[in-house]
Amino acid sequence: MTFYIGVDIGGTNIKVGVVDEAGRIVGESSCPTGADRPQEVVLKDILRTAEDAVAASGVPRRDIHAAGVGSPGAVDSETGTVLYNYNLGWRDFAIAPMMSEALDLPVRLENDANAAALGEVVAGSAKGASSAMVITLGTGVGSGFVIDGNIWTGYNSAACEFGHMVIAYGGRPCTCGRRGCFEAYASATGLIAMTKEAIAAHPNSALGELAHREGCVSGHTPFDAAEAGDPVAQRVVDEYIGYLACGLVNLINGLQPEVISIGGGIGKQGERLLAPLRLKVAEETFGERTEGEKMTRLVSCTLGYKAGLIGAAMAARR
Amino acid sequence: MTFYIGVDIGGTNIKVGVVDEAGRIVGESSCPTGADRPQEVVLKDILRTAEDAVAASGVPRRDIHAAGVGSPGAVDSETGTVLYNYNLGWRDFAIAPMMSEALDLPVRLENDANAAALGEVVAGSAKGASSAMVITLGTGVGSGFVIDGNIWTGYNSAACEFGHMVIAYGGRPCTCGRRGCFEAYASATGLIAMTKEAIAAHPNSALGELAHREGCVSGHTPFDAAEAGDPVAQRVVDEYIGYLACGLVNLINGLQPEVISIGGGIGKQGERLLAPLRLKVAEETFGERTEGEKMTRLVSCTLGYKAGLIGAAMAARR
User: Fold this and answer.
1) Whether the Cβ atoms of residue B147 and residue B153 lie closer than 8 Å to each other
2) Binary contact (B169, A249; C-beta < 8 A)
3) B291 touching A, CB under 8 A?
4) For burial by CB atoms within 10 Å, which of A72, A253, A270, B238 has the most?
5) Chain A partners of B257 at a C-beta cutoff of 8 Å?
6) ipTM of this predicted structure
7) Sign of CA dihedral B41, B46, B47, B49
8) Which tens digit of pLDDT belongs to each residue from A223-280?
9) β-pair partners for B28
10) Are B204 and B190 contacting, i.e. CB atoms less than 8 angstroms apart?
């Protein structure tokens, strides 16, 4: 049997798994990331956690053929170097060669969102798709594009920042410096901002009362209030879905992937989000809607946090 | 020697060429498209023109191994069928199998913009690029994406309608039914509309006088007046470049192709367009601009009308 180590580096925790050829986790372990510590100290924790995961899996060391690492930030997969990463404070961190030496295995580095996309294609919501785009709706909007089982990284390893695709010229400011990015509208952060604006304008709405009762506004709040029949919340949800559909239709018109999988915090709304989203997307997509015409399938991600480490392990297969 | 027939179906003319392995045309011919005639009648003209091109090339019939056709509209490359095409009035036209039978050759059908993109990659501005996007700025905005010498058609042959990527949510109406599409701003049509609006607001500007003298507004008009120092025209050019850069940066952030080639009527402005465009694109692209960082190259298309037929021929190689 052949197994791979997958490492998913998050802002809070580092998760490591031993994964089989089919993308099943057979042993795992984790440790706190401890961002802002020297890179080399974090590396030691990763290596120790990898050994823990191998021990937990019971897989003989000789059956492990390679390791993959998913890291946030800008990465160069050819040299295995994290170029820079604002959240963790990393810069020019040659993590793959260093891990490779310590583990005596080939090590492949990928961007974390891209790795998660590959995980969903190999073992999750887009299993078997010839091409798939995974969009994660969280603090930001992440995206990964997988063609024939390979992550599309562009010619410089920096591709798939579709969160920073402008959909509203001159619109909401984005963390990247542009205005009107998809991320500024379709992220959980964007939805929460829209919800707070609606509450400020309609403090006595059921939406406002729900937020007051819960003491905060989350990505759930407008969906819950809309489901309970509040028109103010419904308008927020409709507006949000309008922006989200806009970005997705851009991707469909341009790339026509077989599947788009929606993940991240807002993705957990499941059909409450996807059912109206599919209608809006079908309405706006370029071309005629003839019977039997092949349309991109819109589904929810199914692997959750495991997508990243499964995908990192699967990236190591190449 | 191995040769291929390439057919480029345009709204006005059909061009046919015999092309060698390296993408060089060794013989060509053309005929009027005569749109709105029955599909079968047009097919007869294509076949006759192909024989003319073969005769002009002097290539022995047995050295021609396949033919490729670039057609506007929605095509299904798997079945070789033009699904629909509003300009020519075609619908469910199984052109590739019909040509294949008549010519006794394998025939490959591609969308015309995709074929032109492949032509630029094999023999033109993006020669040798591992990945390239070709954007044509004409009546509409066409796009083609080529990865490792293959046209990216998506899983349903309908990909690469990046002209119908919304960049200005709720903005200018587009022919596709959406609002704010890249095409509505970055096409020659979009530039001419912006120019006319500026002239209406400033009829006595040098721009207005130039348009009056020439009796019309074309894609050249604002560039000519701006070069002569007119601030009204300069604002139009700056606004246009802002929208064009916006769409290109979306594509770069998402796909990071090695090269983007700009063609079509507006592409003929060459460095007058590209020099300021490169500055704007560099300013907006996601990530740090570190020294030596790989950046997508922005260049002008070099094959002109020949790109379509060369690319159609090259698509037939697969």
Assistant:
1) no
2) no
3) no
4) A253
5) 154-155
6) 0.92
7) positive
8) 999 999 999 999 999 999 999 999 999 999 999 999 999 999 999 999 999 999 999 9
9) B17
10) no
Domain architecture of chain B: domains with CATH = 3-124+305-315 (3.30.420.40), 131-300 (3.30.420.40)
Q: How many whole angstroms separate alpha carbon A313 and alpha carbon A310?
A: 5
For A79-99, the pLDDT digits (tens) are: 999 998 877 888 899 999 999
Contacting residues of A for B78, CB less than 8 Å apart: none
| Helix count and strand count (H, E) for chain B | 11, 13
Among A residues 74-113, those touching chain B with beta carbons less than 8 Å apart: 74, 83-84
Q: Point out the residue among B161, B253, B296 whose CB comes nearest to the CB of A253.
A: B161
CB B225 within 8 A of CB B233: yes
Q: Is A161–B286 a contact, with Cβ atoms under 8 angstroms apart?
A: yes
* Nearest residue to A187 (alpha-carbon basis) of A219, A228, A225, A148: A219
Confidence of residue A290 (pLDDT cuts 50, 70, 90): low
Query: Tell me: the pLDDT tens digits for A14-61?
Result: 999 999 999 999 999 999 998 778 888 999 999 999 999 999 999 999
8 Å CB contact between A301 and A262: yes
Confidence band, pLDDT 50/70/90 cuts, at residue A11: confident
Chain A CB contacts of B243 below 8 Å: 169
Test the B interface: residue of A92, A147, A241, A250 with most B CBs within 10 Å = A250
- The pLDDT tens digits for B73-83 are 889 898 999 99
- Please identify every stretch of chain B with a pLDDT value under 50, giving residue numbers as ranges: none
Q: Do B161 and A246 touch (CB under 8 A)?
A: no
Among residues B87, B14, B3, which one has the least CA distance to residue B308? B14
The minimum CA-CA distance between B162 and chain A, rounded to whole Å, is 5
> How far out from the chain centre does Cα A14 lie?
16
What is the distance between the alpha carbons of residues B188 and A272, in angstroms, rounded to a whole number? 42
- Output the pLDDT for position A86: 75
Nearest to B245 by CA among B268, B224, B273, B287: B273
Length of chain A: 318
Which residues have C-beta within 8 Å of that of residue B282, sequence separation ≥ 6?
B289, B295
Measured between alpha carbons, how far is residue B305 from residues B18, B24, B50, B141 in Å? 15, 13, 17, 16
B156–A294 C-beta distance less than 8 A: yes
Question: Residues near B233 by Cβ (< 8 Å), separated by ≥ 6?
Answer: B195, B198, B205, B206, B207, B210, B221, B222, B223, B224, B225, B226
Using a 10 angstrom Cβ sphere, with 0-12 exposed, 13-18 middle and 19 or more buried, the burial of residue A204 is exposed
Residue that the structure tokens 């993006």 belong to: B126
Q: What is the mean pLDDT of residues A112-123?
A: 94
Q: What is the secondary structure of A115-181 as a DSSP string?
A: HHHHHHHHHSTTTT-SEEEEEEESSSEEEEEEETTEE---TTS----GGG-BSBTT-SB-TTS-BSB
